[in-house]
Amino acid sequence: MEPIQVAWSIPLAVDAWVSTRAGGVSTGAYQSLNLATHVGDDDAAVQENRRRLQAHLGIDVPITWMSQVHGTQVATPDQGPICADAVYSNQPGQVCAVLTADCLPILLCNHQGTEVAAVHAGWRGLAAGVLEAALVKFHTPAQHLYAWLGPAIGPESFEVGSDVRDAFIRGDEQSVAAFVPGGGAGRYYADLYALARIRLRRAGVLEVSGGGWCTVRETERFFSYRRDGVTGRMASLIRVRSKA
Questions:
Q1: Which of 12, 117, 138, 194 has the most CB atoms around its CB within 10 Å?
Q2: What pLDDT score does 1 carry?
Q3: CATH architecture classification, 4-239
Q4: pTM given for the model
């Protein structure tokens, strides 16, 4: 198993990780560390992959997994089965996770590591305000939060229509800088990382790291829905600091 330890550019008081596609038991299009139950993979293989990941990371509490729907709902681990696109916790030792294969995973925490959130930011959710909805859950002011941007589709691979560009620009004219002309009329290349940074900055979160990957181009490392259609999902995870 080869999950990558999340590389933050600033010290954190929490553990955080992102998995690659390597190290699991899934086969075919899902090879090999697919962590999603909703993509057509054998459920027994997914459960074994989740068990292996949890054991490898030394996590001894249940991981909070979400059923993600490209919306703006923010849940907490105590709600049972979660249908949402962000999960927030301030309970010591709890682990929040987000599954992606092109969409942008965003991990948030305060300086003390006592509040964390994992956010699933596809373009629809990001434009609709899922990031801002997650930030509202924090008791800590935004200027005392950290954000990390995980592996997502890169700006050279994410071609979209004018409807996507318009959805962002309506909310913030600064978003125009995150789009460049694409391969035809009304087509643009969108930079999800830049769009997230714009929204974080507007919300008051100034300490942001991560970004720079492309799930589409890094075939051996990441799953990509846009590249493959039928594929698995990686996980980005963050754990609330345990009490001393």
A1: 117
A2: 44
A3: 4-Layer Sandwich (3.60)
A4: 0.95
